Amino acid sequence: MAQFALAALVTFGLGHIPISGYGVAVAALVLVIALLGAVYVVPIMLTWRKSRLRGPKPWWSRWYALALIVVVVLGLWERVPPMMHHFYKPFFAPSDSMAPTIGSGDKFVVDMRWHGPPKRGDVIVFQAADSVRVSRIAAIAGDRIAMRAGLPIVNGVPVAQHTEGRVMVDDIEGRHPATILTERLLGERSSHRILDTDASLFDDASEVTVPPGHLFVLGDNRDRSADSRVPLEQQGVGMVPTTTIIGRAMYLYWSSNRAKIGDRLDR
Checking CA distances to 264, which of 64, 122, 125, 176 falls within 20 to 30 Å? Predict the structure, then answer.
């Protein structure tokens, strides 16, 4: 019964105790492992102390009762993770459209309880027409946004960008140099990094107004992202309806670049 109670507390507790970062998640995992250990250690110690006593076995220690417990535990094991995914769910990036923030193959946790309000700079996961995608909100409903030589202009104000340095990047077109820029969108709490590879077809775009109930999103890898600048018929996403939002990305929990593990995505 202690095992079942612990599983229930962990599952439903996640809905009320926010996992705000990688460190908190690791601490919660350590706590769960310690509690599971205690659940097993205590009966082992009690059994060892009474092992010299002979007597009739209680029904719950007979083979058929133990087999039933195993079946129930295995059944719950299949159902607990999907229930937990109503609160937090792991995703992975299949492409470099959000590099350098989220690279191809990086794995990150999404807050599935998040329903806004959406803010500029939030990294969201949403359901596009053909797949689940991850992008950064650049403009919200009512905003006017345009692109000039790769620079977003929101409500007539150019977004602040600063050159950080040059790096070599790999993608489907091979290895080539790129510029890393720091960018801070209008009203964003902190800056983020973006990649500027070269001139692309969507570096310039006429000003549009984001309609009610929609968002304008951009990938951090500006020249390798089919985002709101790209029409649906060209494999882009156009204006993203807020009803398609799955959740907000929180932090990276795995990356081939070990230095990125634990990086926050929700600030």
Answer: 176
